[in-house]
Protein 1
Amino acid sequence: MQTNVLEMRDIDKSFASNPVLRRAGFSLRKGECHALMGENGAGKSTMMKILTGVYFRDGGTVEIDGKEVVFNAPRDAENAGIAMIFQEFSLIPTLTVAQNIFLGHEPKRTRNAFIRDAEMVRRARAILEEFGENIDPRARVEELSVGAKQMVEIAKALSKNARIIVMDEPTASLSEKEVETLFRLVRQLKEQGISIVYISHRMAEIYQICDRITAMRDGRDILTADTRDVTMEDLIRAMLGSERKATMEWVQRSVDTSGVPVLEVENLHVPGAVRDVSFALRPGEIVGLAGLTGSGRTEIVEAVFGIRSADGGTIKVDGQAIRSNREAIEAGIGLVPEDRRTQGLVLDHSLKDNVMLPNLSRFTRKSFVRDAAARRAATTHIHDLNIKSESADQQVLLLSGGNQQKIVLAKWLERKPKVLILDEPTIGVDIGAKADLVMKIREIADAGTAVLVISSEFEELLAISDRLLVIYDGTLIAEMDRQDVQSEEALHHAVQG
């Protein structure tokens, strides 16, 4: 029988009068990768924040190597060999790789406070080379790719002699090649006896990399088993409950393609990213932009929305040319961006305020905010989108990722857009919320809105699209009806050019 390096038993945690964890448990063996699964709000993040000393538990025990521990601060967990890599990196962009890796525990000269820079660079290079990464320790972090930043975060944890590493949605923003690199590193860490807690909503990768799975629901651990003994249906049932389903099947829709396009893009050119791209969207149509990370998908939709400069081509809504972001919004275009936290929301403000921001003219009279009207509108969206929040006045920062994504969607739905652009709409969203969003997008299109969707998950793109535009190296190389695409493999082949 394998010995657990970590054992969490009967963990309770409440915020105000709201119980978040109820006698929850989790265990971790030496050298294993253990998936922690569940819907947004199931208690995963709270469980890990207790482990890493961010929160103090109300009840239960935490044992490391069989001995009970009490962490009053993150530093206590760090000293016990526990590190957490968050979905939003905790790196300082303007510092070098080496400075980030050793931040707070820099090698110093014995008799003074001066940092031994050369030694810090040498040690950083040794850690990176140990797991096969050719990253310059003297490079600034802001110059790195997302995948390289992920590796720096892991190197930072290893520099503190971490024995347990918690990875929160580690592949959310990685390219396919970067995911392969991460998986290779995870296997290498396991061989070195390092244990990994792996939090992800991407079901397929759990079965690729994890040895065991724990599924949580409503603040409790519902299932723990070896990955090979759990079917995907078992896992979904454990996370959602037997009464709920999370189907991602394609539903063929009836779309009138003979009408006048609501959006026309002709010969679009974005410097260094997009060349001569042309397409059109008709009312009620859902069009998927398929392509690899870096293919130019995001640059296309940002140019359409007017937040990225184009030096060629035309963009029209209902025949009227669009030349700026203001004109795009006034013409009826809405964008749910890939990075909701920095581009889509004001995290310190309430749900009501975020819904109101792009709609101020609707909720102001003579420069005064019609607060009651804004609250009613926000409350309507809470019910329509099944947003889990205490009220319209709750701070957005306190909500789960899936609920935050729904708020970004709500603020544009309040404008009743003619064209709705969704860039990675389900990134970091659990499978239940993902299915809810897919159904909602179909409802939006059924009501007459043209929808343009970017997704790196081909299953999702195939489930939602009526038509697919394939982007490769900044150009449109193919246009396909969804009914003509027989499998994810066929779409994967197409996006590789």
Protein 2
Amino acid sequence: MVSTPPTAPVLFDRALLGVRLARAERDGAVTFLLDRAAEDLADRLLAVSRSFAAAADLWTPGAGLTEAVRGRSGSHQRIAFDPSEALSLPAGTLDLVVSALAFQFVNDLPGVLAQIRRALKPDGLLLAAMLGGDTLTELRQSFAAAEAECEGGVSPRVAPFADLRDIGALLQRAGFALPVTDVDRVVVRYDSAFALMADLRRMGATNVLRERRHGPTRRATMLRMAELYRERFADPDGRIRATFDIVWLSGWVPHESQQQPLKPGSAKASLEAAVKGMQK
């Protein structure tokens, strides 16, 4: 009997996400995180000593990565946001895929990584940044405490974020070689929790969880959330802190030119001998 592969859980309402992103673009997007990611991506590409004939920017909001990619590729394309997460890219046609601040709202990240792996040529590179780790931990904690106190229960308010180990394992699972992950922690200060939430709205990053509360939040709960946020996460000057962890991931499609691990038993000197030599 053939077993059916497990279906990825559907955490996010990606159709609603598309609406929120379009609204943010229309109203004047807040781009300080995207600008930081674009600058960092340009620096990371400069450290790669090769050119890329064909590149694609996958789902990055706006045109934030256009300049970073333009100087390193012969041709590049922007792939617009797709609620279905399907990539209609022919196999083995790209040398480089980049993405910034989009993967955190993907329901089937293993599936998307597998599609990217298929679209890349041998020795092709995936370089992406996504929100992860402890992003918005202060807002999450403040909402949970306020709802428990004012309403006797807690509803999903802030999306779950993947950590470095999980993302590194997913790269390997998708078949990428030389996987690397690291995190850039950005702490932003605001006058209030409501100012933070206004920025999130203009990033297109407000709550799109399918299990979110669909009715309006009580005014008392919102006010208590802001009060708890200030009590727990304010600096001496009264301004609150908000954490954003930008998680970077990169991996290469295997190629014979890449550095390979040594075969077991191929070392010419034992670790024991090396340690004894250092002790002399």
Protein 3
Amino acid sequence: MSWWGKLIGGAVGFSIGGPLGLLIGGILGHKYVDKPNNETFGQNNELTQAAFFSATFSIMGRITKADGRVSEDEIAMARQIMEHMHLDAAQKKAAIHLFNEGKKADFDLDGVLLQFKQAAHRRTTLLQMFLEIQLHAAYADGKMDSAEQAIINHIAGQLGFSLRHVEQLSALVRFNLGLDAQGYYHGGAASGKSSGDLLKEAYELLGIPESADDAEVKKAYRRMMNQHHPDKLVSKGLPEEMIELATEKTQQIKAAYELIKKSRK
């Protein structure tokens, strides 16, 4: 049975308490009040998946509200992620509920982040995938304003990522969305970007300078592919529904690597 089936079935182990417990309890129509069970956190992969799902959509709602209003593009982006995950009707309803909870003024952002980091066992690759999804939310309307950048930097810091790491992940998201380095939309690879701009973004995506030698390029590529390997991410707690998102990331990394290789021939 999947994490979702166990959650709906009321399996023991989901009464985790704290802000995540309240979010998960809200999905089911009641509130969990039990204290967090650290032993359960260490043994229950389904719990990690439930925590990832709940933190993803609630914090996404918080980010879209950062600039004072939630735009139609941001709502469309959230729904697009739900479609990518092939959520059923009940799961979509839960995701929307979580998204709306995140928009509330009293949403406990730091509490959710702290508890999610614990549930994810501080696994860097899993936390990184979470941050990338939140970057998609921040760039949903074609740009990242100062309020959104501030909350992204705060989230990254709480999860243990440096600002340099945020910049690299931002490059990956921009490469996918067709944005320039300032986060403004220019239509993507198929609609007018110069080969020089695309090549520059490919290097930014891999986190290496254009002066890197071939061995450094290959090493960076393999590192990025390893960090985004769908099967590894799922084994560490990524919900199965998000495999397609992880697969798309590997395709983007491969495209950047191939572009760099082609330019060097």
Protein 4
Amino acid sequence: MKQVWNAYMKPFHVLGNLYFVGTRPASVHLFQTEEGLILLDTGYADTLYLVMDGIRELGFSPYNIRYLLHSHAHIDHIGGTRRLAELTGAKTVIGRADFDAATGKRDLTYAYELGEAFEEPFTPDILLDDGDVLTLGSTAIHCVHTPGHTEGTMSFFFDLVENGQTFHAAMHGGIGCNTMSRAYLERHHLPFSLRDTFLCDLMRLRELPVDVVIGNHQDHCDTLGKYARLQQGYWDAFIDPSEWRRYLDRFRDRLLVQMDQESV
């Protein structure tokens, strides 16, 4: 039996109208707006109760969620979606090219590689294309198609207002190189061009002004360390205008090393 409670992380206010609501294996974030809530990713089905507890602990109700927005269609980001959508009536939103994975038509959720089974597929209500904007209240989330980690990975750009200042925030929707290995691409009949597109997009994205980097895994951009600084009274713990480029460059270099090793 999996001890899923080990995935618990205390929910907290990040900046502006953005909150972290869990979990350790895969991050879930919440936007508070004047017209309801947006949940960014849902995590595993088994850890959904931790996410819901986190939402409630921060004083929100899961029943006020209007959109379930997804970075990409891997089981650790969409596993809890069907349950939460059926419970709350929230609309599900994902990149168009990840439709087949979300619906279970193609086995591309990375479930097998994680020793899991994707047993709760769903039919997305809204399919995102490059340049789309998801708006609720005064919150506008700009969506950029950044394939590589999956074919439909979407990255998100939005503003956060704190202490009368506006900060540009971003989440790269799928920065990991694990699904761009030669073995993975061949096994799932995916084009090797995904790697080239991913690298080109990194070079394009790194030129955008970003003050706050949000990760969809807590270990990607030191979420725990930043939370510790928040606890110490540093309200600006997540603000670092130089982090975005360093973050993208780190994963660019990882992929280049991986590709170089595979060519030997």
